[in-house]
Model the fold of this input.
Amino acid sequence: MKAASPDRCPVDMALDLVGGKWKSLVLYRLSAGTLRFGQLQRSIPEVTQRMLTLQLRELERDGLVRRVVYAEVPPRVEYSLTPPGRSLTPVLEQLGGWFHQNVSALQDYAHAGTAESGED
Done:
């Protein structure tokens, strides 16, 4: 995680932590509880194994996800949210609720914008 700066917008800093195509979805999936890598990957079928690994490493590095490796054969690895990661759950749920409340209006505005620009 980049050092917090008093001159930098806190929204910008927060989006650095959770932004991107997969991080917020990983956090949301883990909000239901601890998952193994394969379970997490199956819950997000569009993400590649490599990208999921990279996103999990970044989330772990930034203190939002905890990774526990069990000394078994084969090794078992589980991922869960840290307390700061868990505290994001209501924010993600609110974002989803906002989308549901506004999806029709957003589609209307998007359609109107393409109609005005002649891209329809």
In short: The radius of gyration is 18 Å. The longest strand covers residues 65-70. The chain has a mean pLDDT of 90.
